[in-house]
Fold this protein.
Amino acid sequence: MAERGQLSHAYILAGPQEAAHRRALELAQAMLCSAPGARPCGVCRDCRKVQRGVHPDLTILCRLSDGKGKLKREIYVDQIRELAAGASILPGEAERKVYLIQDAGMMNAAAQNALLKLLEEPPSFVCLILEAESADLLLETVRSRCVLEHVRGEETAPPPEARELAERFLDAAAARSRLTLLGIANAKGDLSGAELLDFTAAARGLLTDMLCGRLPARQMDRGRLLRLYGLMERAEEYLRFNVSVRHVWGMLSAEGASE
């Protein structure tokens, strides 16, 4: 809950995606709630519209998809410029306008610098919420202008064998060794879907640490790390649609060594 006047104009919510998004929606409700007293009330018209994602004063920005429905690996500067251009327009229904940026850590440097201008001199009625797995993925100049809130999810750490497999996979990917990746895929083709999800979660965690500088990047640049992160997300999406484990491993081995 938040009393009127206690809300900041900009937040970074750092933590697991689902938990950060739940907290982001709660903050958006607090910013747009029309009830007296503590916010959000959760039951007024504005709170209900936010929960359904249909409030006219809530804009959710995320990575775009290509023609095949695959998420692009970054949020680009043109998206942020478009957001900033609309920020000067007065709210339609509520006292504020809220811009929620999902996967904010995937903004490239140009996009973050474009957002910085809005963070420095926002209209009085504009609030920004940035979701990121780690605040370290954002520029210090962006972090310094936001309230940082660490969000804890219910996710448990992947088992040690999943992390070990992820380490082996990323070593081979860094070396662009198709033969090694194919060997891993053949050896692990009998894993269950849940075990493969443990592997992708472990790999995403390692890639996040490399992007943040907490772990050595195995001589891979940011673009390469982001492509591998996107590859793990695609594998998880395939598994959600019941694509066979062997088929997913085939994709991982084929694309893990690509440019």
